[in-house]
Amino acid sequence: MYSQVLCGLCQNKEVLRVGAVFASGFIRAIRFLENNWSLLCKDIRNGTIDTRITDASVRGAVMKILRPDSELADFIEAECNKQSWQGIITRLWPNTKYVDVIVTGTMSQYIPTLDYYSNGLPLVCTMYASSECYFGVNLNPLCKPSDVSYTLIPTMAYFEFLPVHRNNGATNSITVPKSLNGKEQQELVDLVDVKIGQEYELLVTTYAGLYRYRVGDVLRVAGFKNKAPQFNFICRKNVVLSIDSDKTDEDELQNAVKNAVNHLMPFDATLTDYTSYAETSTGQGHYVLFWELSFNDSTPIPPSVFEDCCFTIEESLNSVYRQGRVSDKSIGPLEIKTLEAGTFDKLMDYAISLGASINQYKTPRCVKFAPIVELLNSRVVGNYFSPKCPKWVPGHSQWSNMN
Hints:
This protein is of the alpha+beta class. The chain has three domains: 2-124, no CATH class; 127-236, no CATH class; 239-402, no CATH class. The chain contains 13 helices and 17 strands. An eight-stranded antiparallel beta sheet has the order 4-5-6-11-10-9-7-8. Helix 1 (2-10) crosses helix 2 (23-46), helix 2 packs across helix 4 and helix 8 packs antiparallel against helix 9. The radius of gyration is 23 Å and the shape is globular. The termini are far apart. Residues 168-177 and 396-403 have low confidence and may be disordered.
């Protein structure tokens, strides 16, 4: 990353686009620049590369580009030294036309941060793909992130679709099994038979040999290009959190967090990243949300504001969760734990140390692996609980909605 950023700065007038696969990865690169710009300026000024870059081939490639340039170093130093980093992308790379990142699904939480750093440059989601195969493309790449839809290319793989039945906000299973049962096989539809507005789980049969592989993505049919269906990415199918009979999926959790962070706006604070954990080791199980915040103001946030955030999240969750809180008493008050700055960078570093790809890495929206939970808990700076139970009306549960 150091070498890529260094080359990008050396050729700052030639850069026409910036980005990464996922929005979270690109924001990590900007934070890396925030932490290392003085070293980068030193290398540009002297025409050298930091001794910590030890790979000979990387050093050789960089030195083909790098030349001593004190004027450029002064310019970068002046921009990075300013109190505000708003618009830093267009300030350092003035010819940048757009930011090429995926901002659909839970990546949408990073849109305000990207807009801040880029001065509102277009956020372009060009393609839809996974480790298993490419799926399709966005035929209108300059559309708003909320309007992104992907047209699946039928020669990429053989696509099949399993209808998703939502019960008051939660998808119809806790995990995605590897194989289909008999009923599911009968429900499968081909690409030409999907219906507009319906949500489906995507299955692929690939040239590499995967047969009816459950990708785990939930898509909604948004429309058609000629006769080709176009899909909105909704969420991952796996339920993120569950204590008792409650099932909270990624999409529902994202919407609940989005509602809650509105309480932080008066304090000029933003949510950098978050994950969650179902705490069941002590007595009454409850949801725990780990939040890392960034502050543009020195005004402290009162504990009552975080308590309001907890309550807002609970109010935003489905009725089965609220029944567990209010009537069954099987779920305890939701808890928010605030974290030290840089915690999610350390989480990413840990995942990469275990073999994860930096290009494919996404912050997990639920953690269960004990070492990760321990890492997060070791960096907690504050914890807050929902002060009261959310509203729940008897007879309006998930199960009654199924009748």
